[in-house]
Amino acid sequence: MESLHHLIFGLGIALIPQNIVYCFLGVLYGTLTGVLPGFGPSAAIAILVNIPGEAASVVTCLDGYQMAKQGRAGPAIGIAAFGSFIAGIIGVIGLMALGPPLADFALKFGPLEFICLIILGLSMVSLLSTGSTIKALIMAAFGLFLGTIGVDPEYGGFRFTFGLTVLSDGVGLIPAVMGLFGISEILLNVEAGEGASSIVQAKIQNMLPSFKDWMESKWAILRGSLIGFFLGLLPGGGAMLASFVSYTVEKKFSKHPERFGHGAIEGVAGPESANNAAAQSAFIPLLTLGLPSNTVTAILLGALMIHGVIPGPVLISQNPEIFWGVIASMILGNAMLLVLNLPLIPLWVKVLRIPYSYLFPLILLFCVVGVYTIANNPADVIVMLVLGVIGYGLRKLRYEPAPLVLALVLGPLFERSVIQGLKITYGNLWMLFTRPICLGLLFITVLFLFIPYLMKFKQKAVDSGFKE
Amino acid sequence: MVIDLITTIIFVSFAFVMTVQSVKLGLGTWEEPGPGFFPAFTTIVIGTLSLVHLISQVRRSRTKEKTEFDLGPQWVKVFGLMVITFLYIQFLWDKLGYLISTTIWLVFVFKLGNIQSWKKCLIISVGIVIISYILFVKVGQCFLPKGILGF
Q1: Which A positions 254-313 lie with beta carbon below 8 A of chain B?
Q2: Interface mutation target, options B20, B32, B42, B120, chain A, most CBs of A under 10 Å
Q3: For residue B7, which residues of chain A lie inside 8 Å, CB to CB?
Q4: Does any domain span residue B15?
Q5: Is A451 exposed, middle or buried (0-12, 13-18, 19+ CB in 10 A)?
Q6: What ipTM score was computed for the predicted complex, to two decimals?
Q7: What pTM value is reported for the model?
Q8: Domains held by chain B: number
Q9: Which residues does residue B90 pair with via DSSP β-bridges, in sequence order?
Q10: Which residue range(s) make up the domain with B22?
């Protein structure tokens, strides 16, 4: 009841006309930059042209793009928008109700806990792939290796740069994602002679999700929201892991997992919900403890400090208008985003009708400019092109890039955690089994990996019992 | 099938070479891992998995099971597209600036995309470059190379 009063107080702050205008401008600018490939994450671009703007959008490409090719881009973008809105509201409610205790829980995550969390994440690699499991594992290991290129985080020396300055900062995530997905997709389509045709050959169906789509997606949205909310609390790769974990959970729980990778709407609804929920819960460590968990919250921390506001345990008591105003503005921002994006769906879907010979140069241009503007360095574009060619070759040979990207994202954090874990335990990683959070995560990993085999074994036993 | 085998052998060789490089960086000890510790772990995993895959492929080749690999009808265009894009970024981008270099590049890319008329390619390219310049530089406040035009 008290939280409700506080929320009404926060809404009173957020609904001041000046603040509404600022909120709208922020949402509008975010939408405009997000839709340009390479400039930011956008479910629409991931779904329409198979270009994820960031690592968290990679899994949206897997099924979203397939849905677009089947003429169902509208429902895909629509469910992504609705799922994000619902997840955002769940995230805000969670932030209000559980913020401080969850922040304390997040602080309990040390190097050993992160090792177990990332093992859980990497164990899902096989579920990201629709093809050979061993090829997916090779890609994941290759992604972990690519994450070691550049400056060694412990000793500061260069590793595997071979004298190339462009690799001194490592393999950038955005050039890697754009190259492996976007550029390789363009090359495959050009090779197949897609010039005169458009991306989608099938009749474009509904612009919004149907009742059936909602029924298929409702649990995915709820599960994704919860997964994203809890993983978003963790500093580092927690939020990026959220969409991957959500995708693999949906595939695992689905009665028809073979649909995933071929246009399953749950494969869009779950990850997009997880992504947005993680974005909300990332504010919990910032507002309650003063600890930013990602780049966005770090920038926000700087902005608050410039204005003399110190986030932390006393923020709620000393500056309640800031705390509750931020929470209320999240609700407002989520609603504005939904209202802004839904009318644009028919426009986005029209993009699919443009002949590919006109479309792919535009996509390529946006990728080039998007990657260049990261650091105003043409070498980043060369890296993207090289990875694009590699991605093209790998996809021709049925090696999928999604596991590679997952491992590339998690690799640096995994290495740091392993090195720190070995140092603090004096090389005795068996201490993992003495820590309750580690045990819990390892147990979930084992369940995830072995439950399908146990179910098959049980089914075989039942079937052989019937035959006798 | 042969290409699949060759790729797997490449992965095995890559893993071997990079493991040697990692050892040269220094593996350290369990209590104090060196800079080559984690990379060596990853390359050993790559090598092991690739060897397992290689063995399974060799066994499959004995059963004459085939996997498909084919180049599409326009594979030369793929090569051409990458070459001209590389040349555009490496040699034209900074020297000529965004406006001129991108116009030249887009003309060739549209031609690769089967647009027959050079005039049409040029008109569309100029239009796209102007609109994108306004979008990226004026609205988005991005920095793009000015080159010989100075803007």
Answers
A1: none
A2: B42
A3: 397
A4: yes
A5: exposed
A6: 0.90
A7: 0.82
A8: 2
A9: none
A10: 2-62
